[in-house]
Write a structure and sequence with these properties.
Blueprint: E1 12-13, H1 16-23, E2 32-36, H2 42-49, E3 54-58, H3 62-72, E4 77-79, E5 96-101, H4 107-116, E6 124-132, H5 133-139, H6 150-155, E7 159-167, E8 172-173, E9 180-187, H7 197-208, H8 216-223, H9 227-233, H10 246-259
Parallel strand pairs: 2-3, 2-5, 3-4, 5-6
Antiparallel strand pairs: 1-8, 6-9, 7-9
Length: 261
């Protein structure tokens, strides 16, 4: 019997009704599928029933990877590696649908890696990802709320995000201490063009470093009090970082890049 490893943040989804719901969110038949962290292959089985054209799974755990190879044989390809070290864009010759019950300890790192490395042509059609509920709440948070922050801004830059399901801890084994949420991500047709995504990471980090403080200090640090930027973007420096909407942050990054051309 395979035991979940706490060090790898393993909690296996076992609720059959939820597994069926997740595998039915989008059309899978004849599509290319990538699953991150398949574990014991519970969701994998439901996905394969929908007859995808090709399926690749990435599983870091050696024992689980070997079990998946044996369980599914020629139905899919198993990559036994750390997802943070894999170049997903090279795995398929077409856009893919990504499923993932992401390890809670690195879920935001995985997502931010994908988003900040996105090129003009998206390598995926959609992302169907499970997160710890409080992380999901931060991803979908709107400005002027306490959950709104760097993660909200980075994730919503190029992607539309929909919350699909709230999933109780009892749906997993072993049962985690927290509940989860399933989010559905798909590409935006229109988004603000930023030359270097690292600048988005930098600016949000500086602004939210002291989220309870007013905007004046981080703005001066980045823009040296440039009044033209304030007037153009209509920013009130007495507000706090969570009071600035998504589009203004993206435009701030563009202004920051323009000053350094």
């Amino acid at each position: 019997m395979i035991k979940a490893k706490k060090s790898l943040g393993q909690n296996f989804l076992i609720d059959k009704e939820i597994l069926e719901k997740i595998s039915s969110i989008t059309m899978i038949k004849n599509k290319s599928i990538l699953e991150i962290g398949p574990g014991t292959g519970n969701l994998t089985s439901y996905i394969l029933r929908k007859k995808p054209k090709k399926m690749i799974v990435i599983e870091k755990d050696n024992e689980l990877a070997a079990n998946l190879e044996n369980k599914f044989k020629n139905q899919l390809t198993v990559i036994n590696d750390d997802v943070l070290k894999v170049d997903e864009t090279s795995l398929f010759g077409e856009k893919v649908i990504v499923f993932g019950n992401l390890p809670y300890n690195i879920s935001t790192e995985i997502l931010c890696k994908w988003i900040l490395n996105l090129k003009e042509n998206f390598w995926f059609e959609s992302l169907i990802l499970m997160f710890q509920k409080e992380v999901a709440d931060r991803i979908i948070a709107e400005f002027n709320t306490s959950n709104y922050g760097r993660l909200s801004i980075i994730c919503n830059w190029k992607l539309n995000i929909k919350k699909m399901y709230y999933i109780k801890a009892s749906a997993f084994f072993p049962k985690p201490k927290v509940d989860s949420s399933l989010l559905f991500f798909y590409p935006k047709k229109n988004f603000v063009r930023i030359k270097d995504p690292n600048n988005l990471e930098k600016i949000t980090r500086i602004f939210f470093n002291q989220r309870r403080k007013m905007l004046k200090k981080p703005f001066n640090q980045l823009f040296n009090g440039d009044q033209r930027v304030l007037d153009k973007l209509k920013i009130d420096l007495t507000k706090r970082p969570q009071n600035i909407n998504l589009e203004t942050y993206y435009k701030l990054v563009c202004e920051y890049e323009n000053l350094r051309c």
